[in-house]
Amino acid sequence: MAKKKKSKTSKTAIDTDDYSRKKVKEFDIDTNIKVAYKTGSIVYGKKRVLKSLRQNPFKMLIIANNCSQDLENQLNYYNSLLTNQLFIYRYKGSSWDLGLVCAKPYMISVIGIEEQGDSDLLSLKATSK
């Protein structure tokens, strides 16, 4: 067997870090909704959200992508009446997907976030502007 030669490498090549391979952590809305559902306080469903919106405003609303135009108009109307405007986030998935994120076997068209718990849902407000 032939002996392998030891290659001399410079210290700079060993000491440098390759940052291109490090993953940038993306904001995952599904996980944050699950965390808010378990640790915070949320209200879901059209009737319950509209009823609660009249009494005490939420910190944020999440509506499904296939939410009806009537419901969206109602939410925007109530939002316009409030002194502090709510942040309304349009979820990219359907109402079935939003229901599955909340661990429910049915469709959920709108979620009202009263208390976010350990999630970072309110950081969506800063990133969307």
Describe the structure.
- Helix content is about 40%, strand content about 15%.
- It is elongated and about 80 Å long.
- The chain has a domain at about 30-115: Ribosomal protein L30/S12 (60s Ribosomal Protein L30, Chain: A, 2-Layer Sandwich), CATH 3.30.1330.
- The mean pLDDT is about 85.
- By secondary structure, the protein is α+β, with helices and mostly antiparallel strands.
- The longest helix is centred in the middle third of the chain and has 13 residues, at about 70-80.
- It is built from 6 helices and 4 strands, in the order H-H-E-H-E-H-E-H-E-H.
- A 4-stranded mixed β-sheet has the order 1-4-2-3, with helices on both faces.
- The protein has helices at about 10-15, 30-40, 45-55, 70-80, 95-100, 125-129, and strands at about 40-45, 60-65, 85-90, 110-115.
Task: Please give the count of helices.
Answer: 6
Order of helices and strands: HHEHEHEHEH
Tell me, rounded to a whole number, the average pLDDT.
85
Residue share in β-strands: 5-15%
What is the CATH superfamily label of the domain at 28-117? Ribosomal protein L30/S12
CA-atom Rg in angstroms: 23 Å
Whole-Å distance between the termini? 65 Å
How would a textbook summarize the main sheet?
4 strands, mixed
Shape summary: elongated
Regarding CATH, which class of the domain at 28-117?
Alpha Beta
Q: Kindly state the percentage of residues in helix.
A: 40-55%
- Strand tally is 4
CATH structural fold name of the domain at 28-117:
60s Ribosomal Protein L30, Chain: A
SS class: alpha+beta
Low-confidence stretches: none
**Architecture of the domain at 28-117, according to CATH?**
2-Layer Sandwich
